[in-house]
Amino acid sequence: MAESPDLASVYHLKLKDAYEDPDALKESEEQLVQLLGEVELQLNETYYLVGDEFSMVDVMLIPLLALIELLGLEVDYIVNRPKIAEYWLLVKQRPSYKALIGNLFGLWNIHLLHSPPTAILTTGGLWHGLAHEEVESELSNRISSSTIH
């Protein structure tokens, strides 16, 4: 989206519309609860989502769990699901998680402390208020200095 700021603006407007539609919010929450229920059942059978080895399926779930935690919703969606809670603790110990996502939480949390919730939800997401160049620079530095495991 950095190369297409107009696309980013359109995307954020759609998000704003979704946040203002109670039916869309309810449907999204129902889908989240259903997904997490399926994940919990699967983790009763396997160590990771598709077996005993970490896979791309796990990579796809991690940002969702990270966002849930970042928003302070882990009690509602992670902690009360014992297998997901155990899985999440395991995933957060991975060097790649620590290098790429875990380290960014500090930056996100600082930003969240200085942004009113309405700004976060209605004007462009978690990075609103930070200069675009600052965000890109910070992400680029952290990604280029990390080793993927």
UniProtKB/TrEMBL annotation:
> What Gene3D superfamilies does the record point to?
1.20.1050.10
State the PROSITE patterns in the record. Answer: GST_CTER
Q: Which residues form a coiled coil?
A: none
The record places domain GST C-terminal at 1-120
Instruction: Specify the domain of life of the species encoding this protein.
Output: Eukaryota
Q: Which InterPro entries match?
A: Glutathione-S-Trfase_C-like, Glutathione-S-Trfase_C_sf, TCHQD
Q: Which terms in the Gene Ontology molecular function aspect does this entry carry?
A: glutathione transferase activity
| Annotated protein name in UniProt | GST C-terminal domain-containing protein
Q: Which organism is it from?
A: Coptis chinensis
